[in-house]
Amino acid sequence: MKGVVKSIKHFKIISLIIILFLLAACDNGSNFCNHDWDWAVIMFPTKTTDGEKIETCKRCGETRGYRLLFAAGNGTADDPFLITNEVSLRRIGTGMNGWELSSYYKLTMNINLTDTWTPIYQFTGDFNGNNKTISGLTGNGGMFGSIELNGRVRNLILVDVYIVGRFAGIGGVANFNNGIIINCSVSGTINGGFVGGIVGFNFGMVSNSTATGMVTGSGSVGGIAGWNSTHDGMGQWRNSIATVQNSYFSGNVGGSGSLVSVGGVVGFNQQGTVQNSFSVGNVSGTGTLGTLCPFGGIVGRHDSGTIRNNVALNHSIIVSDGVSGRVVGWGLEGLANNYAWTNMSVSHFFSPNINGVDGACVSTMDAIDKFWWMNDSNLGWAWGNCESFPWIWDDNAKQPRLWFE
Fold first, then answer.
1. Which of 222, 307, 320, 385 could form a disulfide with 266, with the two C-beta atoms 3.0–4.6 Å apart?
2. For the range 87-94, what are the long-range contacts, defined as Cβ-Cβ under 8 Å and sequence gap of 24 or more?
């Protein structure tokens, strides 16, 4: 009997302890436990990776974990902010933790974007893509809305872009460029008004860059730059260099409308310079009867400036209700030492002239001969394997390519 009473007492004590524990854990009936988290960093953030933080509740033992964003760099030339993922990429220029538009940034990991991109405007800093890849940029504008004077974007590779916009200027790297774009590559589809594979409106420098895919629009359309000019189109002349050089486009470029001008490299050149570049693919479009709608293998419309040492290897230039030329669609001033493929299919009568809109003829055999490019053509391109000597010969494709590809 005494044993039974003792067991009952023990049961009551245990039951009371359980009740007290449940009462302590109760949160007005909505949760079983008021978590008392104790956390531990499993991996500290480094200059190339995020960290991991695991929290464990002291009461119930539940765990939760999440990534700690890195905090590497201070945004200077010697110690740039390091970008490792989409979250940190979207932080550029927000001012969060010192991430200003004027800061220095460096991409350290390949990134696959998962949502529509919002362009970065008024960038005056330095973005070093570090030859890493950003994939899947989609939206109505390029990665940068505008690169301002002193701004620089370099060593950036954008793949599988899909940009469809209604803005005046649209480009894969930037919609507007007043600074420097160098050693950049874009592949994908871009459509809009004044459009370029690399930049929509260029008032600065585009160098050592390439674009591949389809570029189409209703205004000035170019494989590399839509509009290359020292004039902003709104009555203001800019004190700028407006240069596209050491670049090439491969793919299809086209346009239609009463304001259209289409070129394999630049759509409209106005007091700018287009030099040491080439294009491969097709130029096509439809103008408006009674208006000037030029189409060219290198430049569509040329209103003064310099176009020299370029090679148009386009398969075809087919247009209706427009004017065309193998190298330049319209404009004679400042043309020098340009070439066009002999077998190019064109919708106009052409007259070969090394300093004219149709350029001198280059045969198929010469076009795939590196010695013609390096010596016989007198193009004067910088051959090597670095930024200052960007051209190298691709034995497989039998054409020039850029040093970083």
1. 222
2. 89/113, 89/134, 90/118, 92/120, 92/123, 92/127, 93/120, 93/122, 93/123, 93/125
How far is 253 from 276, CA to CA, in rounded Å?
19
User: What confidence tier does 321 reach under pLDDT thresholds 50, 70, 90?
Assistant: confident
* HSE-up (13 A, CA, CB side) for residue 182: 14
> What rounded mean pLDDT belongs to the chain?
87
The parent domain of residue 50 ranges over 35-68
Query: Are residues 157 and 169 both part of a single domain?
Result: yes
The reply to whether the predicted model has a pTM over 0.85 is no
194-196 and 169-171 as β-strands: parallel, antiparallel, unpaired?
parallel
**What does each C-alpha distance from 376 to 25, 280, 366, 380 come to in angstroms?**
86, 20, 9, 10
CA distance 301 to 291: 13
**Any idea what DSSP says for residue 8?**
H
3-state secondary structure of 385: coil
Number of domains the chain contains: 3
Shared-domain flag, residues 149 and 245: yes
Does one domain contain both 94 and 180?
Answer: yes
